[in-house]
Write a structure and sequence with these properties.
With 282 residues, the chain is α+β, with helices and mostly antiparallel strands. It has a single domain, classed as RNA Cap, Translation Initiation Factor Eif4e (2-Layer Sandwich), CATH 3.30.760. Helix content is 34%, strand content 21%. It has six helices and seven strands. The protein has a seven-stranded antiparallel β-sheet. The radius of gyration is 29 Å and the shape is elongated.
Length: 282
């Protein structure tokens, strides 16, 4: 069975380290200096607590089930991220290059799990960006910062919520996803894309073409398999959306009829022709 990626622990407190400067490389010294600097800073708390999850296909079932969907083994890694310093300790020590094909890592708010059918995700959806592996780590870090810095949350429509972000490994690319809770809020969908295209892409990054990213509701995935209870929630939401669409259509038709009626009333009446008899006739 595939093993989870290990966290690098060189230089972290509680571990014995050699004090021989002759065996330290410049890169290692810079890493240690960065860690020591973080230790001296007062923790900057994040607005929400975040958890790291690792996901891999179930090798005992040859990866795929009969319907073509992947079974997964979801595991929480490390401790909860409660501050900016916690995030950088995790991010600087997570070897993205060691994540194997079809394995995934997620940074999700506490209380959320990276599962489509989870009760807090069931009505949501996600943007997915296909990024070349050479640029994946940088793009991934920027997207995570947009999440923990609440910039993604700030652009959402009222009543919507960011659930988390994820990175999945494919043959020659990383699939980086952003999950939110309510796929029916189109303003949220549009705003997430606009923010990523303007804030998550470095200047020297190759431009993302429209076929490199897509949006999808969780319920539209082939492997989506909710419990009967969650299916009832979906059916109820679908009925509300259909009712709202019917009401909006009726209101639009009524507005068109009102406009047409007002336009017909505003047309001036044609002038009446009055025949005047010739002079001399009585």
């Amino acid at each position: 069975m595939s093993s989870r990626p290990g966290l690098f622990t060189r230089g972290l407190s509680g571990l014995s380290q050699s004090n021989d400067a002759s065996v330290s490389s410049p890169a290692a010294e810079r890493d240690d200096a960065k860690r020591n600097f973080l230790k001296t800073m007062r923790p900057l708390p994040t607005q929400h607590y975040w958890n790291i999850w690792f996901d891999r296909p179930d090798k005992d079932q040859q990866g795929k089930s009969a319907d073509g969907s992947y079974h997964s083994n979801l595991e929480k890694l490390g401790s909860t991220i409660e501050s900016v310093q916690d995030f950088w300790r995790y991010n600087n020590n997570m070897p993205i290059e060691n994540i194997k094909m079809r394995e995934s890592i997620y940074l999700f708010k506490a209380g959320f799990k990276p599962v489509w059918e989870d009760r807090r995700n069931i009505l949501g959806g996600s943007w997915t960006f296909r990024v070349p592996k050479a640029n994946g780590a940088d793009f991934w870090t920027r997207v995570q910062l947009l999440a923990i810095g609440e910039e993604l949350q700030d652009v959402l429509e009222e009543g919507d919520q960011i659930c988390g972000v994820g990175l999945s490994v494919r043959f020659n690319a990383h699939l980086i996803s952003i999950w939110h809770r309510d796929a029916s809020k189109q303003k949220s969908v549009d705003a997430i894309l606009q923010l990523v295209l303007t804030k998550a892409i470095p200047d020297d990054f190759p431009p993302l073409k429209p076929d490199n990213y897509f949006y999808k509701k969780h319920s539209d995935h082939a492997g989506f398999n909710p419990s009967p209870e969650m299916q009832a929630v979906l059916d109820s939401q679908k009925a509300r959306e259909q009712h709202a669409a019917a009401v909006a259509k009726a209101q639009a038709q009524a507005a068109q009829q009102t406009t047409a009626h007002q336009g017909s009333q505003s047309q001036p009446e044609p002038p009446q022709i009055v025949e005047v008899p010739p002079s001399g006739e009585a």
